[in-house]
Input
Amino acid sequence: MDMKRAWWKEAVIYQIYPRSFMDSNGDGIGDLQGIISRLDYLKYLGIDVIWLSPVYQSPNDDNGYDISDYQDIMDEFGTMADFDELLAAAHERGIKIVMDLVVNHTSDEHRWFVESRKAKDNAYRDYYIWREGKDGQTPPNNWGSCFGGPAWQYDGETGMYYLHLFSKKQPDLNWDNPKVREEVFDMMTWWCDKGIDGFRMDVISMISKTEEMPDGEAHGMYGSFDPYCVHGPNVHKYLREMNEKVLSKYDIMTVGETAGVTTEQAKQYAGEDAHELHMVFQFEHVEGDGKYGKWTDEKIPLIRLKKILSRWQTELYGKAWNSLFWDNHDQPRAVSRFGDDRPQYREMSAKMLATCLHMMQGTPYIYQGEELGMTNYPFQSPEEFRDIESINAYREWCEEGPVPHETFWSCITFKSRDNARTPVQWDDSPQAGFTTGEPWIAINPNYTQINAKAETADPGSVFHYYKKLIALRKAYPVIVYGRYELLMEDDEDLYVYTREMDEEKLLVVCSFCDHETGFTIPDEFAKASCLISNTDGNYDRAEITLKPYEAFVLRTI
Ligand code: GLC
Ligand code: CA
Output
């Protein structure tokens, strides 16, 4: 299969959640100058692109995912001059910057919404989705929001309800209104003209809603909006329009966040000739395993994980492009979730996970701190949560709901988004070198052991292992473009696959278990060389015993 080459296919992307990355002025909140001060660290790691979580003006009901001005920078993060400096400083180092585009909804403090709620005949009324309630004080339908509670908010000003699939401070935009699309496209053009290098599109699969809005299938207290607002009737039409009017005019990359997407739908959003997006984030391997909604304390069984990831690898091959990730700002820490964060296994399993992901076909994303093997935070009480989703979920399921504290606690501490949002651990000085002040969210106490200063100085660290994986991807096109094949699909402990391009073949072997396992190296790899290993293994013999969480890659030529 002949694959079209593209820079964004060959890139490694690093996600920055600015609030928790680096604080430059001691107010306890990460900021743009903080990011600038760490660009050399990222350059040394070897990444090509930064995906910047939202830095726009926002009242921070959902940490910047509720935007009140798309063309201004959040005061806490700095100014537009700081942004311009960041963009220039990144470009100087050959690093591109991809912006978060949050246009399914705005903040309720955005001037469009401030206008919209004023009167039924306001010029901005149709920028949002307003409906009459059912007889007086009952919402138009039973839909629940992603952050708990109903998806409709009553507004006394005009006596109607507005739709918010997320918090009530995040009203959904009405994409069926051509003026909304025009405003969004103009805003995107403005950023592109500034020289940014792409967009990560927040919940982009939800922008189109059905005209009819019937009750959804009930899950607990509320009904699901899923078939009516996810992959809605006009989503592809609007994305093609966006592509035609904005994206196609620039050499930028795009990745859509498309929860619930299937491989078939992914080909529509991000097919080689779809003229929509370059790639999408799929969530099958990180979602749908909950006991209470999304909440669970169970790890996904390896066989299921392999099945999901392999389906994405093979079904998109040559047709659409994969994005590869274990975690992000909405997910727990990779090593705690998919690996093993007990001290004796943390480093090995973090390196193993990195091997498993970075040797796959697609564009890999590293979430800040993942390259250090940062772990979930040891929460002691619900007061420590800062995240609106965790706070609401604890109240809804536990305090006001049916699930006993002990049962829910192990689930919410395992999956809370705040696990990923504790500050990056830069060194072993107080507050982990993140701030000289009081951090906005607790710092993981393990920063004295796990931090960037120690790891950059130690050639055997998780950091250096990531650095090596990134360098390998640049050296061997087979890692980017090769065909993927899963071996030993029924094995409960090992994830083994091959990559193949022309005469070249790789064997990737990853142990996902905390005990030793026997493994037979296939004949065709008998004379192969070892590209990388997370231990001092000898792969010259056919019969080998793998250590807990051992990982290695062999190459035939
Ligand atoms: C996306 C973001 C998440 C945010 C939500 C609403 O899922 O990744 O952080 O809360 O959209 O914007
Ligand atoms: Ca700051």
